[in-house]
Amino acid sequence: MLPVVVVHGGAGYIPKERSELSISGVCSAVQAGYTILQGEGSSMDAVVEAVIQMENNPAFNAGCGSVLNIKGEVEMDALVMDGKTLGSGAVSAVRNIANPIQLARLVMDKTSHACLTAEGASQFARSMGIPEVPLESLITEYSRMRWKKNLAPDANPVECQMLGTVGAVAVDKEGNIACATSTGGMLNKMEGRVGDTPIIGSGGYADNLLGAVSTTGHGETIMKITLARLILFHMEQGQSAEAASDLGLAYMKSRLEGLGGVVTVDPQGHWAARFSSNYMAWAAAQEDTLHYGLYTGEHFTQKA
Ligand SMILES: NC(=O)C[C@H](N)C(=O)O
User: Fold this and answer.
1) Rounded to two decimals, what is the model's pTM?
2) CB–CB of 54/9 below 8 Å?
3) Which DSSP symbol is given to 37?
4) Which residues, in sequence order, are CB contacts of 254 under 8 Å at separation 6+?
5) CA atoms lying within 13 Å on the CB side of residue 10
6) 40 C-alpha vs ligand 1 centroid, how far in Å?
7) ipTM, interface predicted TM-score of the complex
8) Cα–ligand 1 centroid distance for 220 (angstroms)
9) To test the ligand 1 pocket, which listed residue (216, 221, 256) has its Cβ within 8 A of the most ligand atoms?
């Protein structure tokens, strides 16, 4: 069963013309993670690489392609967690860097802190030699169009809300488990708004004894129920990765009318990609097979 890597490209509304881009994006990201796992790399290396691929892909709301805040600027959140040590690293409201997930990993590896924010995170990035990139390089025509559209008083909140956060979970050959999640947040959010993504237990969680989860959906709702940790709690109680994911998502829906999605693994390599929204691009790679889907109930396979 091991190794395995599972990724998501965000729960929510995906316009038809963008579905191909999302599918091909999650499939190439999962392949990149799987190549690392097959080459003896760690689950942490695999989830970070998979997320970097999606941050660099303008189809997703992370890195280049992030949604814009109310001022038309990009502020990003990211989290990594290492299931062996329970160490984690996060950045919130960071600007002008291409790969927030890399910076989150450096926070975990090189500082004694769990999260750096805003200007302090930028200073740390500079000290680590991470180049600053111009704001414009993170903004796509599509994200600017959606930002403008959503400023209109008659904006459709469903179409304009959650979309495209990216995340990954993996178990390597040694049985070490990791998660990574990265996002531009919610469209037209207030300046300085921080969502669930960089918060351990909400945007993700990893524990070698239980498994790992990376989440997507409305951050303020996810935080209320600490969705990632809630799912792992159900697994601790004996539920499978799939049943626990469904229980967590069902609770968020019944308790708060919140929709979202998750990718989940357990220590044996059982995995799930589950969502209560209409769409979530996801992909998994295990035993040389690539699995992927977008709509509820969809599950395609091909050789990895
Ligand atoms: N699309 C998303 O998943 C958004 C993210 N969870 C946030 O609230 O920042």
Assistant:
1) 0.97
2) yes
3) H
4) none
5) 33
6) 32
7) 0.97
8) 9
9) 216
CATH, residue 15 = 3.60.20.30
8 Å CB contact between 171 and 265: yes
Q: How do residues 212-246 score in pLDDT, each as one tens digit?
A: 999 999 999 999 999 999 999 999 999 999 999 99
Rounded Cα distance, 207 and 86, in Å: 6
Residue 247 lies in domain:
4-303
Q: 234 a known binding residue?
A: no
For β-strands 87-94 and 115-117, DSSP reports them as parallel
Q: Structural domain tally of the chain? A: 1
Distance 281 CA to ligand 1 centre (A): 14
Residue 194 counted as an annotated binding residue: yes
Cis status, amide bond into 3, omega within 30 of 0:
yes
Dump pLDDT digits (tens) for 101-132.
999 999 999 999 999 999 999 999 999 999 99
216 is in an annotated binding site: yes
CB atoms within 10 A of CB 72: 14
